[in-house]
Protein 1
Amino acid sequence: MKMYVGNLSFKTTKQDLESLFSQYGQVTDVHVPTDRESGQPRGFAFVTMDSADSMKKAIDATNGKELDGRNLKVNEAQAREERSGGGGFGGGRPSGGRRY
């Protein structure tokens, strides 16, 4: 029962999100991804609720709601698409594509 919460202010905390969404049911997890370089929040989060009913209530109540000066975009999280490995250099050859 995981939701995507987008358009977050960089000052919105995990605790802020837990407080907001716990009004609609039990929050079991809040994940706020951060940038690897700066450590700053990336402007979105994933909130997991204990049931589909709680999640639906939370989405209906919070999608478009203002939090910390931003209008939230809240919907059910989608499964992440498979990504291909590799960086486009083909077959693990050294850059330049020459064979040695």
Protein 2
Amino acid sequence: MTKSPFPEGFLWGGAVAANQCEGAYLEDGKGLSPVDVLPSVEGGRWDAVMNPTKALETKYDYYPSHESIDFYHRYKEDIALFAEMGFKSFRLSISWPRIFPNGDDATPNEAGLAFYDRVFDECAKYGIEPVVTINHFDTPVELFKNYGGWKNRKCIDFYMNFCEVIFNRYKGKVKYWMTFNEINMILHLPFFGGGMDVNGEANPEEAKYQAAHHQLVASAMATKLAHEIDPENQVGCMLAAGATYAFSCDPKDVWKAMQADREGYFFIDVQARGYYPSYSKRFFKEHNINLVMEDGDLDVLKNHTVDYVAFSYYSSRLTSADPEVMKETEGNVFATLRNPNLEASEWGWQIDPLGLRITMNAIYDRYQKPLFVVENGLGAVDTVEADGSINDDYRIDYMREHVREMGEAIEDGVDLIGYTPWGCIDLVSAGSGEMKKRYGFIYVDRDNEGKGTLNRSKKKSFDWYKKVIESNGSDLV
């Protein structure tokens, strides 16, 4: 045991999202979420994600989100397990269509509001601080169908109506908020990120950045409203992060890596600094992007920046300016070259703990605002042994090294307020719709076809993470 670099009051915890764990997809008045119209990976999920208009017209055999892991009915059991691990915080999202089924409803759905009252009360019983994402890939499908999603400015008003209701309803129960999950993902997965389909657009990039402008304005307005309703509220933005390395020391590769990082930083530059970055002017000009802004937009962005910067980190990225080299890309949503210095997960995600420290330092150097690591973890196939044990040492190894590098970043001077690793309980993968790609400390008996008891059981990593929290990060063995 050594002295911990983690500060007193550090928010150790775990993270989930409503659309990946709740289930009860139409129960108690809930409307449709984007994931509710998507099939499993075997049923063509990725094609549906990229062609949502077509997906809505298609009847699939199986929809993983419809029951998911049934957190809606089992939240007490799950939160009790989180408390047993010693969670100080629990990151979750409020399903927008559970509160406003159509997105533009005149009044909220009381049954949906009451559900989150119960969840937050259960957290309070154990002294667990909720960290709430307002829109986690959960723009109501009806807003997509009737308004075209976030490319329509009316979504700002609908979102603000949602925010006003939940800020008032959960005042005193929720202190930490995040406006949009992985806001930069709107450029890569516009249906998830913006409830929109850009396939028919004359200039898809312009449509995505126009929608992004609407979200950035909405984020600033929500930050303003949250502070007015409760001065104790802390509002953050959230980036899908991961430092991009240059493939070689060729200056062209270095420049390409810098441009790749700027693509994500663009959003946080606006949310944390309060203005569009200088480099965006040239980018918009060269891509024929002409944003429509209303009077007052730039003022609200300037005057209502976020309190902290949250981000997800799973891996670093590698890029080259040479198109022949880039033909070899692989990985998740972000195209990346295979880094020969790194091992990779079963899904091709490269494992780079030091990359987390590099990413943290880069973000903190840029913004000088408290950071919050709200997603990090290893997706893997777990095996249940004959005696019921689940020996996920590979997950412990992954987590240990990432926690160690977080500690190093704190020693570097980074202000870090918390850590909520992703999928603290097994849940449905957003990208693939799979259950076999597991992240949790808690195993859920459910397979890719929706079979299983849904019973919960502890993995070996459960006790390991409990020890980490008890020691405030000093005992990582």
Protein 3
Amino acid sequence: MDAIRVGALLDDTKFDLRLTLVAGKQGLSRRISSSRIQKPGLVLAGFTEYLHKERVQVFGNTEMSYLATLPRERSVEVLRSFFGQDVSCLVVTKGLQPPPEMMAAADEAGVPLLRTSHLSSNFIESVQNCLEDVLTAQTSMHGVLLDVFGVGILLLGKSGIGKSEIALDLIMRGHRLVADDIVDVKRKTPESVFGAGSEIIKHHMEIRGLGIINIKDLFGVAAIRERKKIEIVLELVEWDPNVEYDRLGVEERKFRILDVEIPMLVVPVRPGRNMTTIVEVAARNHLLKLQGHHSAREFQERLNRAIALAPGGRVGEIDVE
């Protein structure tokens, strides 16, 4: 999402913003497009060059005390100048009562004037968390997200290939479900994406023949997670004897989600393959790679050295197929 309305902050219940509208009701449709907050103290002294209009503006005890020292005529002039900069909104913290000239200037400019009982530092932290949660890039995907040995694994594959059944087996082995069927994905940093379950079907799973089951009720709170970083994408495909699947794992594939590249594995499914164990081993192997040990590459290097040292062997790199 690129921006949110100022009015959405008044409706928030998740981040305990404690906001009430004081003046400028006609401006609640103004938009906030940045999660960063600004305390524009120097603007009150007339320096407006670095005023960021797309941010939430915050007046705390310092700014309000400074305004109280000004003659009324000067205070009116300063406040009209500030609200005339077309800012998105102004929040007064610590439960301080805005003076009449501030409310009049906000109404005149059509800029929402809000008040919160939080201290400035507490409110800034809360509203930044709120805006980061709302403004971050997000999408939804069809798949199953699990926490396996602490590794976030997103199972992909066409409907009916067995994603939910594999997930259920993993849960019975002590691993944790994050989302089934619909995975809501958000990019938290430029290099990481997190997945969570949809509010409507969170903690639920569809098993053909059984119907909808509630994992939290069946297995307890230890069997679920609310959110998890996606670290591996594992795509399940039907076994095709005419396709040459990766047998070494030297070259790593990538899957792009919200412009973030994530390691990807393509695993063929056929009767007799223990898919649950394969997923567990994929998680263990990922943890090993994070420790700097790449089993496939280390094997290839040992094989190359052995061939180079063998009588009649060719020195240098070889391609192992």
Protein 4
Amino acid sequence: MQEFLPPRRLLLGPGPSLVHPRVLRAMATPLLGHLDPAFLTVMTDIQTLLREIFHTNNRFTIALSGTGSAGMEAAIVNVVEPGDAVVVGVNGVFGTRLATVVERCGGKAIRVEAPWGRIIETAAIEAALSRSGPVKAVALVHAETSTGARQPLDAVGALCRTHNALFIVDAVTSLAGIPVEVDAWGIDVCYSGTQKCLSCPPGLAPVTVSERALETITRRRTPCQSWYLDFSLIAAYWEEGSRAYHHTAPISMVYALREALRLVEEEGLPARFARHRLNSAALVAGLAALGFTLLPPAGRQLPMLTCVTVPSHIDDAVVRAQLLQAYGIEIGGGLGPLKGKVWRIGLMGESSTEANVLTLLNALEEIGIRSGWLSTPGVALQAAARAYSHTPLEKDGV
């Protein structure tokens, strides 16, 4: 069997994103034992850096061994016991998945639904809490990767406390791309993934848990349904000063995450957020010039994941295949009811650059000219250039 040499790809899909060479070099660092004192300092560094990015002082802030989906499952299985009611916002694939995990735990998922591409209104969450009796938690997706919709969170934490419910947030796509204010927004359990705006290979799930949530977990009537994802067991491994064996951590991935987090720290979160906004604005301007429209309404779009409706005269699958085969560019298609109807274009972390935006728009123009659905070359590139010539966008809001 020959050595595998992957083709060159420009990763502009919904994940994974491109990875900085420093992160790849970190993965080639010689292994240490997962209880080696030198490796434990790496774990401590990660906890410190993650607290900064999550904007939290939570003691329990770790990198769970597993992808973002493991973070989702861990958040639910540790909190939800059989019979518990959980209000779940469902407006895309990942809200649907949250509800499914709740039900697999024996919980009751109270679905608060919105059309795909729309947000879950806070008033609808409040209504569900008021009419549903005791509710264990509210679970929302901050950045719905299947639709590009950005869910407001700032008012939900206080609402959860009024109803004595925990607040669980999926920040898989949002962390390090837009503000995630765990403490200020009253989030009790927040999880993410490494392969999106953190620009690290997939394999770890950053998680942070409030003291309020930890107290709830310690009062469980039944054991956690998962041994591997049991926070009460994992805590012993991540507790500074008393690291105890739980499982063999993915050493090289931990090295990679530490380096990726260092890159985030060096850039600074305000600058990183501004970069994502600016490149998104240029991409959206260029796509609009080609006749594409955004799926989420104005003010609800994500800057790191642009979801556009594909015009009926353009063959979704054919164009995506041409981008991949002729240009080495990967973008994402639609999921579920949006299959064949939308494109999902990721400008996440290392993938979010002006050069990548212009490369993609140029490729789409060339495909459009050859296919006959574009008659005027340069319109998308000119629109993007105008966006880049403007002053930086206003400060990122909630």
